[in-house]
Amino acid sequence: MEIRYLLLLCAVAGAVQAGKHDQYSGHQVFGIKFRNASDSELLHRLEGLLELDTWQHGVLEQRDAMVMVPPGKREAFLKALDDEGVQHYVQMDDVAEALKKHDDEISAWKRARRTRMIFQDYWRYDQIDAYLERIASQYPDLVTLVNAGKSYEGRDIKYLKISTTKFNDPSKPIYFMDAMIHAREWVTTPVALYSIYRLVENLRSQDQDLLRDIDWIIMPLVNPDGYEFTHTDTRLWRKTRSVLPVHETCLGVDANRNFDVLFGTTGVSENPCALTYPGTHAFSEPETGYVRDILQEHLNRIQLYMNIHSHGNWVLFGYGDHSLPPNAAQLHHVGAAMGAAMDAMKLPQAGYYLVGNSASLLYGTSGSAQDYAQVIGVPFSYTLELPGYGFGFLVPPQFIDQINEETWQGIAVTARLARSYYRARYNANN
């Protein structure tokens, strides 16, 4: 009887796993080629009208847009494009099948590389949390572990403060980076973890100055609830997992629309079920509140804030309403240097990084972490969009090492340039 019961459990577990991605059966991802600004505007209207999921934003004559379309909206979507003569093609024929293939690739990767560093795989929350604990315990003179507080579902959200002077030297700028504010962007957290590794466990001679002259704050998992949900239930989940007071069944908020800067005005949806729903009010989510608190606590010294996303090869800065910060030239200078450093190492199938104002290059937004940090006084605030290699959010794990290394080179460049700007300001005031 016991053996029969165990076999039944295994069969049920297998059936659940097999149907894990059924919600995406028949969904397709279409590539769209833009001829002019009107094509881009049409797609943006369709995104809102049909509540489509944009995987990549297009740029005229440089890169195609990628949009996931469910079966029930495919006819209306394609008719609207065809009526205007907009060229399109199928980028991904069945998203459910692509998700299953992605799972298989990850499983094969784990089997082939039984010894994997924390930054070489898509580890779960518990393993990432344990790594942060270990690093702080093993390097107490260099690393301080901070528990920012609980996520909506009760997970601890932790970050590391890395400093040779325990954050007590005001002549040193602070570099603050975070990752996984959008839950489905798995490849972002390995970059944050690799940065910890390069600063603490594997500091190389050419990077001694990055640790000596700069203090670091690194938060690898801003949205752990959403991240865990993408592993257990819905791989393409983007939002937090809070229960909304305005809707019984639709959960969560787009955390990167939840900051207190032009809140709820542009690039958002009033529909609580939509991917870009910003919440009922700014900082409704504990997760965004913790990012705010770090920025506010260290505002006099944070010289650069890097909000890491995936995907698309972008280095973006404010503002989301098409206006520019007073130091836009300096923002572009540092951002362009970052893009060049990463492009120097890129794979042939990756696009070149595009650098500039987020609204001008992509679309208008409000309530973003990037804009909030900039508007409260962080001199250099960026949204970094990592490569996708045509896989969208399903970057195969064999690309992780490449992304980590090239992004670290970009981070190092921005850190040194930001340090130069900070020193000039600090010396002038002291």
Element layout with pairings:
Elements: H1 2-18, E1 28-32, H2 37-50, E2 53-56, E3 65-69, H3 71-83, E4 88-92, H4 95-112, H5 125-138, E5 143-150, E6 156-162, E7 174-179, H6 188-201, H7 208-212, E8 215-219, H8 224-232, H9 286-297, E9 302-310, E10 314-317, H10 328-343, E11 354-357, H11 358-361, H12 369-376, E12 380-386, H13 400-429
Parallel strand pairs: 7-8, 7-9, 9-12, 10-11
Antiparallel strand pairs: 1-3, 1-4, 2-3, 5-6, 6-8, 10-12
Structural description of this entry:
With 430 residues, this protein is an alpha/beta fold. It folds into two domains: 25-93, Alpha-Beta Plaits, CATH 3.30.70.340; 107-429, Aminopeptidase (3-Layer(aba) Sandwich). The chain is 40% helix and 16% strand. The protein has helices spanning 2-18, 37-50, 71-83, 95-112, 125-138, 188-201, 208-212, 224-232, 286-297, 328-343, 358-361, 369-376, 400-429, and strands at 28-32, 53-56, 65-69, 88-92, 143-150, 156-162, 174-179, 215-219, 302-310, 314-317, 354-357, 380-386. The strands form two sheets. Strands 5-6-8-7-9-12-10-11 form an eight-stranded mixed β-sheet, with helices on both faces. Strands 2-3-1-4 form a four-stranded antiparallel β-sheet. Helix 2 runs antiparallel to helix 3 and helix 6 (188-201) packs across helix 13. It starts with a helix and ends with a helix.
List keywords for this structure.
430 residues, alpha/beta, Alpha-Beta Plaits, Aminopeptidase, 2 domains, 8-stranded mixed β-sheet, 4-stranded antiparallel β-sheet, 13 helices, 12 strands, 16% strand, globular
